[in-house]
């Protein structure tokens, strides 16, 4: 009986550690979402932004690692308001 309680405790600790150290992805990464994002980037962003090189605006490659999803959505939704603040 003590052995089962010990095993159960170890399993619970492992689950908690896994949840803590491997958080849920903040951004979708399935093929359909990536294709839609590529289309939207080409339509609305590429005229001013590159992924690696500067354009009129800064490069956006890796931006999801620099900004939270909330900050990025806020900026995209109303960039002039964010820039003014």
Question: Can you describe this structure?
Answer:
The protein has 85 residues and is mainly α. The chain contains five helices and no strands. It starts with a helix and ends with a helix. The relative contact order is 0.07.
Topology pattern, helix = H, strand = E: HHHHH
Radius of gyration: 21 Å
Strand content: under 5%
Helix share, percent: 55-70%
Structural class: mainly alpha
Biggest β-sheet description: none
Could you tell me how far the N terminus lies from the C terminus, measured between alpha carbons in angstroms? Answer: 62 Å
What's the number of extended β-strand segments? 0
Query: Which geometry do the CA atoms define?
Result: elongated
Q: Kindly state the mean pLDDT as a whole number?
A: 83
Number of helices: 5
- Low-confidence parts, pLDDT < 50 over ≥5 residues? none
Write a concise synopsis of the structure shown.
The chain has 85 residues and is mainly alpha-helical. It contains five helices and no strands.
Task: List the main descriptive attributes of the protein structure presented here.
62% helix, mainly alpha, 85 residues
Please specify the SSE layout and strand pairing.
Elements: H1 2-21, H2 31-44, H3 63-66, H4 69-77, H5 79-84
């Amino acid at each position: 009986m003590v052995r089962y309680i010990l095993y159960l405790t170890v399993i619970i600790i492992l689950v908690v550690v896994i949840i803590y150290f491997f958080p849920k992805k903040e951004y979708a990464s399935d093929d359909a979402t990536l294709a839609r994002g590529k289309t939207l980037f080409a339509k609305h962003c590429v005229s001013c932004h590159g992924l690696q090189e500067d354009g009129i605006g800064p490069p956006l490659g890796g931006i999801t690692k620099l900004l939270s999803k909330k900050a990025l959505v806020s900026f995209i939704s109303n960039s002039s308001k964010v820039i003014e603040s």
